[in-house]
Amino acid sequence: MQLKADTAGLSPITGNPAMTPTTTPATTITCFIRYEIDPYQREAFKEYAQNWGRIIPRCGGKLVGYFLPYEGTNNIAWGLISFDSLAAYEVYRAHLRIDVDARRNFALAQERRFILSEERNFVEVVDGTYNMAAEKA
Questions:
Q1: CA–CA separation, 44 and 111 (whole Å)
Q2: Please, are residues 63 and 17 in contact by the beta-carbon 8 Å criterion?
Q3: To 10 degrees, the CA torsion angle through 10, 55, 113, 67?
Q4: How confident is residue 20, by pLDDT bands cut at 50, 70 and 90?
Q5: How many DSSP H helices and E strands does the chain contain?
Q6: 35-119 belongs to which CATH class?
Q7: How many whole angstroms separate alpha carbon 8 and alpha carbon 15?
């Protein structure tokens, strides 16, 4: 079973097209960013992530969201951004390099040093596994 964007509405959480079990996702790849953060600067990372909430969509990324640790490990955070292709990701990166707010946000992280390390992986949705509703018995 494949998923497809429901063109009738947008998800209230992500702002992306709502997904139904009968179609395929509107985007094909997601950049999964794993951050090791200074747990004593959690609020600084939160500010940084909130800034990306305005910048990423403007530069062409489809922001899934940023996630802070809540329970358990206190120094790992994540950011997920979707793209239609790796070529779309490259265009997005070019826009980031010239966007004043993006450059300011990168500088904020460097100055305050709340990000200790960062890993990026590109993943794709496995058909029949994304945003699936529970089947009724």
A1: 11
A2: no
A3: 0
A4: very low
A5: 3, 6
A6: alpha beta
A7: 13
CA nearest to 19, candidates 136, 137, 125? 125
Q: Record the pTM.
A: 0.75
Res 3 pLDDT > 70: no
DSSP state of 41: G
Residues 122, 32: contact at Cβ < 8 Å? yes
Residue-level pLDDT at 135: 85
Spacing of C-alpha 64 from chain mean position: 4
Q: Where are the beta strands (DSSP E) in 1-137?
A: 4-10, 17-20, 29-37, 62-67, 76-83, 115-123
Using a CB cutoff of 8 Å and minimum separation of 24, what contacts does 92-97 make? 92/56, 92/59, 92/60, 92/61, 95/58, 95/59, 95/60, 96/55, 96/59
Please provide the average confidence, as pLDDT, over all residues in the chain.
84
Host H or E run for residue 127:
none
What pLDDT is recorded for position 27?
56
Confidence at 81, pLDDT banded by 50, 70, 90: very high
